[in-house]
């Protein structure tokens, strides 16, 4: 009996050790497969090959800030009130670039700052799905980078472009929501940003100026802007924004304006602006939450010196893209993750008794 118990204890120890190794090996294999596929697809396409860049504009009386968030590229929506896929995303970003160019001409802008506020992808946060879908996930990442590449080149035709970025909550790889830099940057948002940064490296007039995990500051014409994703904003938006700004005030930094997204609904205030999404309504928001929204993104016009100028915010309605030509992208890379509809179904376990 003592010998049998000793063997059982040893078997249990081996089982635990094998399970720990198996979980670690799955993560390593998933990341390796993802990276190999991503690298092979990156080698197939260049970013500025055959592109004639225009001359960088000089002077200018204002700077535009494009608030870009909640793009959710790999989400698919098929509703009577809304449709969304990669093609629609490419159309809506093309429409946004048109509006930015119109505003630039009206205000005499010479530069555009693109503030990437996260949630550029939906992600499955399960190791088995990451492993089995490594090809599709990397293709979705490349599609997002491909469409954003076209968007930035479109803006570059008229402006000097600067890009900043932070992570969102939906694009994280891990199941847990993290706040440390190491955990929060384990995100597809950072992956897309770094692909674009590497692809545009050395390109005249397009600069990638910084990426942070949760919060980022940048300065435009003497004003300090704070970038958040928005999942750290409470129900009382004004109070939450001022509390976060107060944290920086204690460090001697005055935040003039706060940019965030997350809730997929536009709201432009005196000291902050919340972005909508590029998606608009989906099955979960309409049927599960009884909440309708429209596809939109914000653009801000910064004019004059601090104290004498202004920050004008504009919501650009992107819902209707009739007649808009989408940016070209590699359609063979399309891969969808229609997770919004899955939220409407409650999982159940069926027990079968066999006699």
Q: Which structural category do the helix and sheet elements fall into?
A: alpha/beta
Report low-confidence residues grouped into runs of 5 or more.
126-135
How far apart are the termini? 33 Å
Radius of gyration: 23 Å
Could you report the average pLDDT, rounded to the nearest whole number?
Answer: 83
Indicate the percent of residues in helices: 25-40%
Question: Can you write the helix and strand succession as a string?
Answer: HEEEHEHHEHHEEEHEEEHEEH
Major β-sheet profile: 6 strands, mixed
Molecular shape = globular
Query: What's the tally of helices?
Result: 9
Strand order of the largest sheet: 6-5-4-1-12-13
- Number of DSSP strand runs: 13
Strand content: 15-25%
Report on the structure:
- The chain is built from nine helices and 13 strands.
- The chain has 355 residues and is an alpha/beta fold.
- The chain is globular and about 90 Å long.
């Amino acid at each position: 009996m003592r010998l049998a118990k000793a063997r059982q204890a040893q078997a249990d120890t081996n089982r635990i050790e094998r399970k720990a190794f198996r979980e670690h090996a799955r993560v390593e294999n998933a990341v390796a497969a993802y990276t190999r596929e991503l690298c092979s697809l990156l080698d197939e396409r260049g970013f500025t090959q055959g592109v004639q860049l225009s001359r960088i504009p000089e002077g200018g009386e204002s700077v535009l800030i494009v608030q870009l968030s909640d793009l959710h590229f790999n989400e698919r929506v098929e509703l009577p009130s809304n449709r969304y896929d990669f093609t629609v995303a490419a159309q809506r970003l093309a429409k946004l670039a048109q509006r930015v160019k119109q505003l630039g001409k009206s205000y005499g802008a010479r530069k555009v700052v693109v503030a990437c506020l996260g949630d550029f992808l939906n992600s499955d946060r399960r190791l088995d799905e990451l492993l089995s879908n490594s090809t599709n996930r990397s293709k979705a990442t490349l599609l997002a980078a491909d469409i954003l590449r076209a968007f930035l080149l479109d803006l570059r035709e008229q402006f000097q472009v600067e890009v900043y970025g932070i992570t969102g909550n939906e694009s994280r790889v891990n199941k847990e929501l993290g706040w440390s830099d190491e955990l929060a940057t384990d995100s597809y948002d950072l992956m897309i940003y770094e692909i674009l940064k590497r692809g545009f490296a050395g390109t005249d007039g397009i600069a990638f100026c910084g990426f942070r995990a949760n919060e980022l500051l940048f300065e435009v014409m003497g004003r300090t802007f704070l970038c958040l994703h928005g999942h750290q904003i409470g129900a009382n938006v004004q109070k939450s924004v001022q509390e976060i700004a107060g944290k920086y005030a204690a460090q001697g930094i005055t935040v003039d304006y706060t940019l965030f997204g997350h809730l997929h609904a536009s709201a432009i205030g005196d000291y902050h602006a919340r972005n909508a999404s590029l998606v608009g309504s989906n099955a979960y928001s309409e049927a599960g939450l009884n909440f309708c929204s429209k596809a939109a993104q914000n653009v801000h016009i910064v004019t004059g010196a601090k104290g004498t100028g202004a920050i004008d915010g504009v919501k650009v309605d992107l819902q209707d893209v009739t007649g808009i030509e989408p940016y070209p992208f590699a359609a063979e890379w399309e891969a969808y993750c229609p997770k919004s509809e899955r939220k409407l179904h409650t999982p159940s376990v069926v027990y079968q008794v066999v006699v």
